[in-house]
């Protein structure tokens, strides 16, 4: 049986930290579904379709990765896609408490779905989409932190 993981997030925008985690996850899982969250309560810079396009372009050569919008309860989405794992990134201790709460809640709703936490590569441990947007807003250098398509789109948004 294939081991399928769902990697959920807003990915507004996707960073090299997200990309690193997904690529390393491919070494562990047979398939990773990147679930791009549609969250009307979050004021995203990029539309859901823009964010999905970024992810699809970045992983166009990775056969183990699929991309879908996430517009329902995560555990239901995972069940609908036969996933038994939710993949999450932990950058710092500050992420831990929130992520453990989510994992516990998800496990209480769906005991057959496990959460797996991975830490990013050292060079991306401090990255977040919020920080990326702040740097872009102030015309900072982002080449090391985001894919070229994301960089170009950020420049357009903030020009």
Polypeptide structure, described:
With 159 residues, the chain is an alpha/beta fold. The protein is built from six helices and five strands, in the order βαβαβαβαβαα. It has helices at residues 16-25, 48-58, 74-80, 93-109, 129-137, 148-158, and strands spanning 4-9, 31-37, 65-70, 85-89, 114-118. Strands 3-2-1-4-5 form a five-stranded parallel sheet, sandwiched between helices. The termini are far apart. The model has no long low-confidence stretch (mean pLDDT 94).
Quick recap:
With 159 residues, this protein is an alpha/beta fold.
Distance between the termini: 49 Å
Number of domains: 1
The share of residues in helices is: 40-55%
The geometry reads as globular
User: How many E strands?
Assistant: 5
Under the CATH scheme, which class?
Answer: Alpha Beta
Instruction: Describe the main β-sheet briefly.
Output: 5 strands, parallel
Which class best fits the helix and strand makeup? alpha/beta
Radius of gyration: 15 Å
Give the averaged pLDDT, no decimals: 94
Uncertain ranges? none
Strand content: 15-25%
The CATH homology group name: HUPs
H/E element sequence: EHEHEHEHEHH
Largest sheet strand order: 3-2-1-4-5
């Amino acid at each position: 049986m294939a081991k399928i993981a769902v990697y959920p997030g807003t990915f507004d925008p996707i960073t090299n930290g997200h990309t690193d985690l997904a690529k390393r996850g491919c070494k562990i899982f047979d398939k990773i579904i990147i679930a791009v969250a549609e969250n009307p309560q979050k004021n995203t810079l990029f539309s859901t379709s823009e964010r999905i396009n970024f992810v699809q372009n970045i992983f166009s050569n990775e056969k183990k990765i699929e991309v879908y919008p996430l517009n329902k309860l995560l555990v239901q989405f995972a069940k609908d896609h036969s996933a038994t794992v939710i993949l999450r990134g932990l950058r710092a201790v500050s992420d831990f408490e929130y992520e453990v709460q989510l994992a516990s809640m998800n496990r209480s709703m769906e005991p057959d779905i496990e959460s797996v936490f991975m830490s990013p590569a050292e060079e991306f441990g401090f990255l977040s989409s919020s920080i990326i947007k702040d740097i872009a807003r102030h015309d900072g250098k982002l080449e090391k932190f985001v894919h070229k398509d994301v960089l170009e789109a950020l420049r357009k948004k903030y020009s």
